[in-house]
Amino acid sequence: MKKKIVNNLSQLGPLIGLIIIVIILGFTSDSFFTMNNILNLLRQISINALIAFGMTFVILTGGIDLSVGSILAFGSALTAGMLASGMDPMLAVFIGLLAGLLMGAVNGLIITKGKVAPFIATLATMTIFRGATLVYTDGRPITGLSDSFSFEMIGKGYVFGVPFPVILMLIAFAVLFFILRNTIFGRQVYSVGGNEEASILSGIRADRVKIWVYSITGMLSVLAGIILTSRLNSAQPTAGTMYELDAIAAVVLGGTSLTGGRGWLTGTLIGALIIGVLDNGLNLLNVSSFYQQIVKGSVILLAVLLDRRSK
Amino acid sequence: MNDQNLVKMSEIDKSFAGNRVLQNVNFSVQAGEVHALMGENGAGKSTLIKVLTGIHSRDGGTITVKGKDVIFSHPKEAEKQGIVVIHQELNIIPHLTVTENMFLGKELSIGKTGILRKREMQTQTLESLKRLGVENIPPNETAGNLSVGKQQMIEIARAISTNAEMIIMDEPTAALTDREITSLFKVIESLRKQGVSIVYISHRMEEIFQICDRITVLRDGQYIGTKPIKETSFEAIVKMMVGRDLGERFPERSSVIGDTLLEVKDLARDEWFEGINFQVKEGEILGVAGLMGAGRTEIMETIFGAAKKSKGQVLLQGRPLDVTHPRDSIRAGIGFITEDRKDEGLVLNLSIRENVALTNLKAVSCGGWVSNARERDLVDDLIKKLHVRTTGRDQEVKSLSGGNQQKVVIAKWLGIEPRLLILDEPTRGVDVGAKKEIYHIMNQLTEQGVAIIMVSSELPEILGVSDRIMVIHEGKMAKVFKRGEADQEKIMHAATGGE
Ligand SMILES: Nc1ncnc2c1ncn2[C@@H]1O[C@H](COP(=O)(O)OP(=O)(O)OP(=O)(O)O)[C@@H](O)[C@H]1O
Ligand SMILES: [Mg+2]
């Protein structure tokens, strides 16, 4: 019984960290605690959070996905291209998401059937997908997208005053949270990450589980990319560069173990919030972007060190 | 009061998160004796050893080594005082070589330069291995390529090469072949003559009577007593451990043997085994004997679909069983309790609940959705049925004692309500009481018509529970005995290649 409480306490770590940072920023900046800023902040983190949710699944199986930024770029460019050629916006979005799913599945297939280590496999596809984006866009941004209301809504819209990307993020969170906690698939994700061999011998098709987690991550990355495209009203071939790092940082800050089998999605949401709040707060405080990076890196390091200590 | 005591532990207390594991335990070891430490699974044997060597800190009590009070905060400090442990869990690093493992943390170097004296280390490794009678282990081989038994021998070699005054062996023979056990016992004998003390933990009673001088028994974390081995008996020790008479070692069988359930025809897999032909009937227990490495596990893996056959056929109720993944066999009603519970049986950092549910996800869910209530019922029912000693279904299996981990593996497979259950070394590391419970469960299953294949290296067990016994020698069938036809000698004879 006692163990349970301690366990929960160590899970509270990321949340306590977030609260401390929020309080500090609240005191040092007048504009931090305005409704406007908070909604703005949530919208900013939605892109990283969506990618990081997928990354959580991947990391729980003991893998890693470095290609998320490139998948984001290719999916966005593809969607933008279709829009620019006058395709129905919803159909374009659907095809874009499907492309993300397929790119993720390719990662999964290389890793499981080709037996390539996830780090190497996705390092390679990161380059390949980025290259494909440059080829597809000819290295230039795609602009002149549709002026359809529904597409603009994705990145710029509001529902009852809440930015639409935030709503998408929350929906994705809720769905994925329940998948992880309450479905057979969720169980399999944890067990494959905890002990792949034992899982296979228990009748779990570990390969399929892995292919699915990369596919989900690919799709979520493109969803993030579509939000970005809609906001900017253009698709950049270099979009999403280095996004994998923020996503991995969010997962790790949330307390998910890089060796797999241990972790939770709520932690990732908190991790994404910490990163977002830091970015936002440091901007409000007019800290130079050079120093911002130092602060961000230090916070990540500190969080991980504290986490080790409590274990 | 006694200067002969090399180590004396008095009134040791230890709790994990409020759960009292050791309570007022006394344990003392004299120089030059072989001292057995016995108790049921979860009685606290391994914990007591870990408290002694400083892996766990104690909550109360005193420890003296050669009359001086000590508090070790790290096993290294215990090692300096001449106390080394061969832990129940292997501590071999698989991708290092045998020599590198032997000298891990105490590498020889030229002066203080840090440049390794590789040749010298290799020579010494070979010497230690020779002393154990396992010079067939090449010092340059990657440890991970060796059998678990050989890895265990490396650990033992490492311990005896340190010139220790006291060596603690926590279930050293669980993975050893008979030959390796014989040479281990010879080494123990010669160490004793040199005045080295041995603390010997094992669930194999025969061994205790063979090599030990005194025995200390723990029950539920409490000290029950210490006795010279000569003044006690099998039954007396069991009674001290369990707290009551256990009765017959192998419970009465009363199942009715029915139709043929599984038929294996001319099965072969690459260089592992060939020409395997046998049948198992409903309600029957087929014992599979043989030396370690004879290919018994490989045959079972292949039937279960965890490895590809290269030839032959498997029929279930007369119909060909084509399995390419364990999932197919599970659907066909076959359960497989693997030999190595840590690597193949359990996901260590998940809870009992999650581990048991793993093979039963379909049964406890509805449309992909896991029902908490159904899962709880299934798991609690099995925990109760198998008497798993735990603080609750949400305890991590990592923190269970070895024997209780084994019960969780069994629970996992009972959940699928199998028609055929394959058990590979089901009682390894399991205490006498729990062993009997496992035999009892096997009996109950056969009474319901389940067919059982049991691979085991413990001959008394093979003889005690099997209806028929198949002996495997170097990947081929050596002999099949009916119940009552076989004895230990005949089985050993067949298992070692005699006609
Ligand atoms: N690190 C730990 N955290 C919590 N509980 C633990 C831990 N280590 C051991 N225990 C508990 O302490 C009890 C004693 O365990 P221990 O491993 O000492 O048993 P044992 O006598 O060695 O059993 P076995 O014969 O099965 O190896 C068990 O109930 C176990 O669950
Ligand atoms: Mg133990």
List the main descriptive attributes of the protein structure presented here.
heterodimer, A: mainly alpha, 13 helices, globular, B: 499 residues, alpha/beta, Rossmann fold, 2 domains, six-stranded mixed sheet, 22 strands, 32% helix, binds adenosine-5'-triphosphate, binds magnesium ion
Give a summary of the structure in a few sentences.
By secondary structure, chain A is mainly alpha-helical. In chain A, 77% of the residues lie in helices and 1% in strands.
Provide structural commentary.
The complex is a heterodimer of chains A (311) and B (499). Chain A has 13 helices and 2 strands. By secondary structure, chain A is mainly α. Chain A has a domain of 198 residues. A two-stranded antiparallel ribbon of chain A has the order 1-2. The longest helix of chain A has 27 residues. Chain B is α/β, with parallel strands linked by helices. Chain B folds into 2 domains: 238 residues, Rossmann fold; 236 residues, P-loop containing nucleotide triphosphate hydrolases (Rossmann fold). Helices cover 32% and strands 26% of the residues of chain B. In chain B, the strands form 5 sheets. Chain B has a 6-stranded mixed β-sheet, sandwiched between helices. Chain B has a 6-stranded mixed β-sheet with strand order 16-19-20-13-21-22, sandwiched between helices. A 4-stranded antiparallel β-sheet of chain B has the order 2-1-4-5, with helices on one face. The termini of chain B are far apart. Bound molecules: adenosine-5'-triphosphate and magnesium ion (MG). Magnesium ion binds next to α1 of chain B. Adenosine-5'-triphosphate (ATP) binds next to α1 and α14 of chain B.
Provide the structure class of chain B. alpha/beta
Q: Work out the helicity level of chain A.
A: over 70%
Principal-axis shape of chain B equals globular
| Adjacency order of strands in the biggest sheet of chain A | 1-2
Number of extended strands of chain A = 2
